[in-house]
Amino acid sequence: MAGDFILAVASMMIARLRSDEVTLVLSQVVTDLVQGEFMQLGSKETENERFAHYLTKTYRKTASLIANSVKAVALLSGADEATSELAFQYGRNLGLSFQLVDDLLDFVSSAQAMGKPTAADLRLGLATAPVLFACEKYPELNPMIMRRFQEAGDVEKAFELVHKSRGLEQTRFLARKHGVEAARLAADLTDSPYQKALVVTTDLVLNRIK
């Protein structure tokens, strides 16, 4: 009920903007979020399909909010179509980078630093980027993923195999790739303190510890 209330207040605030275009853009966030939650309930058989599924789910659950919010601000400022699209792509890359770092921290940060248990995603039955990358070296992770780490010892074994693989390194590399792309896009905007803040934000996302 609290979530419904927050959504209702947000909807009223959006309506007060009196911008049909911005309303459509921000409504897409809710659509993507619900679709992402449904995607999280399922998994794919093959490794390639599984990673594509993961990236799409990550966009819908996390990056869409940032991408469409940044685009909405651009539209409200009167930016042209090209700049609005640049803003969207900046937010998309920043959001993907944020979530990839989050998935990484779930394996390397302490519970005290994170404010939540480590390996929380594994315990929820979720295979994130570090696990999917680790599958390349340890295919025995595949049946664990399909059964959502429900058998005794699955979580502990998967956690161990991720650390023995290059999964964490590959996840960090992909997060940096999206972060660098976001910074590149921000650098194309007119020089200003706000533009510099967008560039700095990409670094903050990549180097956060919780």
Attribute tags:
mainly alpha; 210 residues; 0% strand; Farnesyl Diphosphate Synthase
Protein topology:
Layout: H1 2-16, H2 20-40, H3 47-76, H4 81-108, H5 111-114, H6 120-123, H7 129-134, H8 141-146, H9 154-164, H10 167-187, H11 193-206
Apparent shape: globular
Supply the number of helical segments.
11
The SSE string, one letter per element, is HHHHHHHHHHH
**Strand residue content:** under 5%
Note the gap between the termini.
Answer: 28 Å
| Helix content bin | over 70%
Structural class by sheet pairing and helices:
mainly alpha
The CATH topology label is Farnesyl Diphosphate Synthase
Number of strands: 0
Q: What is the C-alpha radius of gyration, as a whole number of Å?
A: 19 Å
pLDDT averaged over residues: 92
What is the CATH H-level superfamily?
Farnesyl Diphosphate Synthase
The CATH class designation is Mainly Alpha
Q: Which stretches are poorly predicted, pLDDT < 50 over at least 5 residues?
A: none
Give a short account of the largest sheet: none
Pfam families: polyprenyl_synt
InterPro entries: Isoprenoid_synthase_dom_sf, Polyprenyl_synt, Polyprenyl_synt_CS
Cofactor: Mg(2+)
GO molecular function, one term: prenyltransferase activity
Please explain how this structure is put together.
There is one protein chain. With 210 residues, this protein is mostly helical. The protein has one domain (1-207): Farnesyl Diphosphate Synthase, CATH 1.10.600. It is 76% helix and 0% strand. It is built from 11 helices and no strands. Helix 3 (47-76) packs across helix 4 (81-108). It is globular and about 55 Å long. The model has no long low-confidence stretch (mean pLDDT 92).
